[in-house]
Amino acid sequence: MVLPSDQDRLYFPATERNRGPIGDALAEILPEHGAVLEIASGSGEHAITFQQRFPGILWQASDSDPEHCKSINAWIEHECLSDQMPQALCLDVLDSPWPLPKQIRVQLKVVVAINLIHISPWTCCKSLIEKASENLPIGGRLILYGPFRRNGSHTSLSNETFDQSLRDRNLLWGVRDLEAVEKLCFDLEFKNMHVQELPANNLIISASKAVRSDR
Ligand SMILES: C[S@@+](CC[C@H](N)C(=O)[O-])C[C@H]1O[C@@H](n2cnc3c(N)ncnc32)[C@H](O)[C@@H]1O
């Protein structure tokens, strides 16, 4: 086994600014116990912060990028959380099925993705919601955080500029329409959509998994 080194720890500056507001919003949504699967955890800074803030939760971080998985594991080690939280899962949101360990599958209550759906193709957003619906139990929650367009328009000039910069980097990326994401959620058996505005023109949206006749 190769132990993660301190040099593996990546720093994503935005996580320092948004971990507080996202954590406060999560405090209103997360259950006391059960497993949370975080898709696209990036550096792992959110994962260790939220594992510390919500000790009753088993926080399973994941990412498709092996360097990011290394960073997540290095942060876990650095924060002495190895006894409390599992090692990062190398999981691509497009994987079918998601390779969840049994320990997570049986306790899964929440799937969360922070800043993923605008920095990946729309197929990733579709797969995220589809697989979340497949893996969550009834009443389980899907939580998404990031910038969104509302009613066909950007909510700020900075989001519009950011959207253009994303599209310049990759034609398949871009700030998503809240209504399109909501429709996808609804079509895939999520209900009770809740939308909250967070600083810097971001939203956190959450919805719970319903049975078909429950919506
Ligand atoms: C902008 S970063 C966000 C990271 C972290 N959630 C945060 O807010 O700091 C986007 C992350 O999505 C991951 N990602 C991109 N495509 C993915 C995919 N298909 N499946 C899983 N993760 C993916 C990238 O590796 C990266 O870590």
Q: Total domains, how many?
A: 1
Shape: globular
Going by CATH, what is the homologous superfamily?
Vaccinia Virus protein VP39
Strand order of the largest sheet: 3-2-1-4-5-9-8
What is the name of the CATH class? Answer: Alpha Beta
What small-molecule ligands were found? S-adenosylmethionine
CATH topology: Rossmann fold
Task: Describe the structure in your own words.
This protein has 215 residues and is of the alpha/beta class. It has a single domain (22-214), classed as Rossmann fold (3-Layer(aba) Sandwich). The protein is 37% helix and 23% strand. The chain has seven helices and nine strands; from the N terminus they run αβαβαβαβαββαβαββ. Strands 3-2-1-4-5-9-8 form a seven-stranded mixed β-sheet, sandwiched between helices. It has a two-stranded parallel ribbon with strand order 6-7. The protein is globular, with a radius of gyration of 17 Å. The protein binds S-adenosylmethionine.
Strand and helix layout:
Layout: H1 13-29, E1 34-39, H2 45-53, E2 57-63, H3 66-78, E3 89-90, H4 102-105, E4 108-114, H5 122-135, E5 141-146, E6 148-149, H6 157-169, E7 176-177, H7 178-187, E8 190-198, E9 202-209
Parallel strand pairs: 1-2, 1-4, 2-3, 4-5, 6-7
Antiparallel strand pairs: 5-9, 8-9
The protein binds S-adenosylmethionine.
